[in-house]
Amino acid sequence: MTRYGYNAGLSAISRRQVLKASGAVAALAAAGMPSKLFAQEKLKVAAIYTVPFEQQWVSRIHKAANAAKDRGDIEYVATENVSNTDYERVMREYAEAGNQLIVGEVFGVEEAARSVAADYPQTAFLMGSSFKPDEKNPNFAVFDNYIQDASYLSGIIAGAMSKTKNIGMVGGFPIPEVNRLMHAFMAGVKETAPDAKFQVAFIGSWFDPPKAKETAFAQIDGGADIMYAERFGVSDAAKEKGVLAIGNVIDTQPDYPETVVASALWHFEPTLDKAIAEVKAGTFKAADYGVYSFMKEGGCSLAPLGTFEDKVPAEVKAMVAEKEKAIKDGSLVTVVNDEEPKSS
Question: pTM for the complete prediction?
């Protein structure tokens, strides 16, 4: 496990002191008085990740946190590769160390994470989650990468670029935050390829490039000529087999200039900046921060076509531009479908 700027011995605040402070905060809240314990010039922020920093989803959170650190808004420490069985311990260590905002992803440890938050009411928790905020945990807010807008636009391009109209899709787990992106992508494909067929598979891991690659190979052997690379490893298979790929969350075209046509990008900055501002103001509360990933909030975008700028038909680029404008002005709303997508 890698630690950045964190000393496990920094448990300067005793359990008794924490509970005492918690009681004070609770008393203020009960009296209807806003607590200003969070408000200070430079916020102490910690992040806990179950995968490496370079994994797509986590890399965007890490990038946004480092940007806030570079601006001088926060102090930032982070831990990567934390197992689900160890997650609760690391959460507690960071809370005991005096971090005022703790960010992470608790998809596999929901109950334990919310229990920890209840023990540290003076600490704000902003956690990636498939579930909604709970008033029983007023200091526990949730977020997710609702980048269905950008995924939809990338699907429009994929449908136009496919010759076989057979699209391969490899995801991590069939949970809402993955499902909604796949459905939006499929809806986009249907705009330019109404008769398209989809091969959908999940590898049961957030970071297993070899397994994702093998799964992609099987779909390409099954006729897919463009791959939706929700996981690392898929674009490697596409490159080796000479087919195209669509990226997700980050722009991987620089690594696959002849393979990755387009990518749906997630920008975590609006989500994190909102949380930082509310913690500093003492107004942080249980809320769903998912809305800040929407395109109209600046939370997602379609990556530049780059090496494929002249390869994507002009009429398709015009359609994408028109749809993007409609999404931003609110006249077009991308459907959010959290159900598990199926092959067709």
Answer: 0.83
Q: What are the tokens at 262?
A: 């387009």
At 138, is the secondary structure helix, strand, or coil?
coil
- What's the rounded Cα separation, in Å, for the pair 51 and 31? 41
Tokens of 154: 């990338």
Q: Same domain for 12 and 135?
A: yes
Looking at per-residue pLDDT, the higher value among 177 and 72 belongs to 72
**Residue 253 in this model has a pLDDT that exceeds 50:** yes
- Whole-number Cα distances in Å, 42 to 101, 195, 280: 11, 54, 9
Give, in degrees to the nearest 5, the angle at Cα 288 between 286 and 291: 150
Q: What share of the chain has pLDDT > 70, as a percent?
A: 88
43 CB-side CA count, 13 A: 30
User: What pLDDT was estimated at residue 108?
Assistant: 87
Same domain, 180 and 194: yes
Question: In which domain, by residue range, is 103 found?
Answer: 3-143
My answer on whether 94 and 184 are in the same domain is: no
